[in-house]
Design goal:
A hairpin with a 2-residue loop joins β7 (134-158) and β8. 7% of the residues are buried. The chain contains one helix and eleven strands. Residues 1-9 and 12-20 have low confidence and may be disordered. With 241 residues, the chain is mainly beta.
């Protein structure tokens, strides 16, 4: 079943790219803070705050805040639902908003030092429109479906600090009547992780994005250097442990 799914993804990507592939090539920097507040052995609140720039630090690209409530069904399956708000920069002074409710199911399997993570997310995107370089009160809606597969491997432990490695890919498609090409983007990435303390992890990541730009009907190729800080707060009562 998994094999068939990956074949379908490859075919969809190939069909999309065959239309027209020329676009812009540029670099971005992303910085993010990710917080997990454990309320109970099964319930948690997950929040991240990010800022993204283009061509070094010269051009502002995106800012976002996103939060969700997660429920762990068992040791491997988790359900989440949340809301995100994005600011997309048209210029450094002008930015438009996006409201994005979403739902996700994730499955994690562990084998020795390896962890296999599958995530399927459904998003409802409400994007603010811009007319003649001015924001309007109108929003356009579309669905977006995201599938991510990731492998995490422990490398070695230095005293109490664990070093680990991630590699993964995420594929995204849009769905709406007004959308011609459903392909949105594909993200491939590799990460190096350093467990600084029991509740703080640092991550340095390189990501390569191929993204369809509907206004130009072509594809941008983006190299991303990303720094993330993961912070866990455990508020479980001793009775729930």
């Amino acid at each position: 079943m998994k094999k068939r799914f990956f074949i379908l993804l490859m075919l969809a990507t190939r069909i999309s790219f065959s239309q027209k592939s020329e676009g812009e090539t540029y670099a971005m920097y992303w910085a993010g803070y990710y917080n997990t507040t454990q309320l109970h052995s099964k319930w948690s609140i997950n929040t991240d705050i990010q800022h993204r720039t283009k061509n070094g630090y010269e051009i502002q690209a995106q800012s976002l805040i996103r939060s969700s409530l997660a429920y762990k069904i068992n040791g491997s399956i988790q359900l989440s639902t949340g809301l995100a708000h994005f600011r997309h920069f048209i210029t450094n002074q002008l930015n438009r908003g996006e409201w994005r409710p979403w739902q996700e199911v994730s499955a994690t399997q562990e084998h020795d030092k390896l962890k296999f993570i599958n995530k399927l997310r459904v998003e409802q995107r409400f994007n603010q429109t811009v007319y003649q370089d001015a924001l309007t009160n109108n929003y356009v809606f579309n669905w977006r479906f995201r599938y991510r597969f990731e492998i995490e491997m422990d490398l070695f432990k230095q005293r109490t600090h664990m070093h680990s490695f991630n590699v993964g890919n995420e594929f995204m498609i849009n769905a709406a009547r007004s959308i011609g090409n459903p392909f949105d983007q594909n993200r491939s990435y590799v990460s190096y992780n350093y467990q600084l303390t029991d509740n703080i992890k640092l991550q340095l990541q390189y990501m390569y994005i191929i993204q369809y730009i509907a206004s130009r009907t072509n594809y941008d190729h983006v190299s991303v250097i990303r720094f993330n800080l993961y912070h866990t707060i455990n508020n479980e009562h001793s009775s729930n442990k």
